[in-house]
């Protein structure tokens, strides 16, 4: 007899898991490849957004778009598992909004660092993403624990680390701001990869109906 919460189809979990893995891996490739396209660029001292102006803009924007699609896919996959009620749904919604914020950032990235309305939109979406991600993890953690996944505890730890150390970004010396930002980006991508792998796992698919 199927578990009462087993509402996600096997195909949905597979598709969202694969898309999520691509969304976690390609942004790293795009970022590293962009360094050689931007003249005099320092990944340690300069932000990811600084790559969005010039020859490397198309590649870094593609990386951000890929991440946006990946995390939205994972949000859909996790929501389909129905491992909780309002908290679980709200957590999946937070991830969906993270993807939406990332998509807007990619759309206006050409204007990053400039004094105009698009730059303001970029900044506010950055703040929204930085807040929604840890909140989403905290809301999803109880359901992930019920699934028996270590990702539940890791999500709580990552959310706390993010909320405590994230604001320090604004106080990091300029010579290290790029490295600090990338460290947090890697944490986000690592979580996305882990969540994608979970969707592809037997543990998750065991909750899907045999259709």
Automatic annotation (TrEMBL):
Keywords linked to the UniProt accession: Membrane, Transmembrane, Transmembrane helix
Coiled-coil segments: none
Transmembrane segments: 12-38, 58-78, 90-109, 121-141, 153-171, 183-201
Pfam families, alphabetized: DUF998 (PF06197)
Membrane is among the record's keywords: yes
Domain of life of the native organism: Bacteria
InterPro entries xrefs: DUF998
Protein name according to UniProt: DUF998 domain-containing protein
Organism expressing this protein natively: Salinarimonas ramus
Classification of source organism: Bacteria, Pseudomonadati, Pseudomonadota, Alphaproteobacteria, Hyphomicrobiales
């Amino acid at each position: 007899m199927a578990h009462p919460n087993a509402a996600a189809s096997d195909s949905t979990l597979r598709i969202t898991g694969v898309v999520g893995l691509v969304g976690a891996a390609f942004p790293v490739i795009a970022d590293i490849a962009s360094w050689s396209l931007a003249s005099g660029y320092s990944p340690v001292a300069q932000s990811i957004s600084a790559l969005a102006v010039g020859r490397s803009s198309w590649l870094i924007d593609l990386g951000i778009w890929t991440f946006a699609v990946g995390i939205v896919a994972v949000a859909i996959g996790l929501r389909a598992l129905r491992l909780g009620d309002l908290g679980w749904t709200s957590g999946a919604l937070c991830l969906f909004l993270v993807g939406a914020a990332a998509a807007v950032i990619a759309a206006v990235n050409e204007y990053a660092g400039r004094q105009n309305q698009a730059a303001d939109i970029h900044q506010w979406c950055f703040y929204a993403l930085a807040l929604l991600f840890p909140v989403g993890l905290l809301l999803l953690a109880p359901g992930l624990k019920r699934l028996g996944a270590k990702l539940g505890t890791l999500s709580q730890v990552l959310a706390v680390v993010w909320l405590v150390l994230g604001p320090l970004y604004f106080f990091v010396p300029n010579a290290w701001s790029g490295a600090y930002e990338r460290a947090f980006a890697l944490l986000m991508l690592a979580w996305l990869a882990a969540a994608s792998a979970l969707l592809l796992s037997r543990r998750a698919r065991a909750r899907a109906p045999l259709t």
